[in-house]
Model the fold of this input.
Amino acid sequence: MSRRLLGVAIMTTLAVGLTGCGSGESGSDNALEIWIRQAPDSDSAKTAKKLADAFTKASGVQTKVVALFDDFETKLNQQAAQKQLPDIVINDTAQLGNMQSQGWLVEMDKAKLAGGDQLSELAWKAATGSDGKFYAAPFSAQAFALIVRKDWREKVSMEPPATWEDLSKLATAFTEKDPDGNGQKDTAGFVIPAGTKRGYASWYASSLIYANGGDFIKAAAPGKYTATMNDPKTVEAVQYLQDQFCKSKTVNPGAVSNDTTVTHEVFEKGQGGIYLVGPYVLARFVKSIGTDKIEVLPVPKGPSGGPGTLGEGENVYVMAGSQNQDAQKKFAEFAISPEGQKIGMNKDANGAIVRLPVNTQVDMAGERQDPRWKVFQEAYANAVYAPPVPNWAPIRQDSADSINTVWADCSADVKAAMEQANTKLTQELQSQKAS
Done:
């Protein structure tokens, strides 16, 4: 088959596989179509279905949940090309700029959204576009912390790290002192998703960059930004991590090619003992590793700044072109209500699609008995969201490519590489007319 015909065949197959999305004239029914970025048949997808079913029971509106993980944004683009966007998309806060700039999103009137006044102002910040208007209903939030093998830390007789130097020493002990007691030198300190897929290297590094007072870009005027990858505080954080890869050699082998899916498994298999990550994997690790073997610790303040970690989460996006506009608004209101938030939290079980509730009327301690969630909640007070540039995705990808390079090549000069990255980000901001 020729390449052209093969491409047509692949696109046709994808289109057939997604037929019926949205509630336009081509839809198979008038159910409210809800897309969520989760693996099909996962615990998280099941929680999304419970949320949708509860909404149907409360409102009478029929729903159809579509859980997709791989190539989620690509498939959304395909649906947009066919003018068959789903009615609702539950997706990352960092995707707002990309979707809004393509005209996919309906503006959200915060004052007319029932329950909108109960949501935290920090969460509303993540629903704000580059023009200062709201384009989503906040749904879930998260900040980052260290999930650490407590049994290993006690085995090597060390205290929880209070500084970056302490953290480095703990990672070295996990690498060199046989914390699992199997008589072999087969453990690492850090497990890191340091690959470039979906910008993971930047995603991981951002919490340490923010903990050190650094940033990728900073606001210069309303809607205008300046690149700051060459800021000494940013350089210091990236250098700290390069030292872990190259000097201390405390990072799990193969990290520079790994995404989070692989890194979760590396941590579960006992190949490393310190994972800087969000709360969404806590219940999974409690089940797979053992509740008495893991602890959650705050990210130490960097030598030049902090405290702060990456802040992110998911929004409920009301998509353009729907024939079910009233139902769209009703679903957004249900999702942000205390009832909707509690369903999404899923208590202490695996499969939470609401990590930290954004509705201030929800008592997280009353819903979750595991006190380790409190560390993530406290970190959220100083969380830093991606700024509302028209499109954050290429900024994360460009910075990830640069950061990954200095972690993979120990001869690379971090300061020089970050200067080059700064030039790339400046060019990207110019192309988005946000410079």
User: Anything to note?
Assistant: Residues 176 and 400 are 29 Å apart (CA to CA).
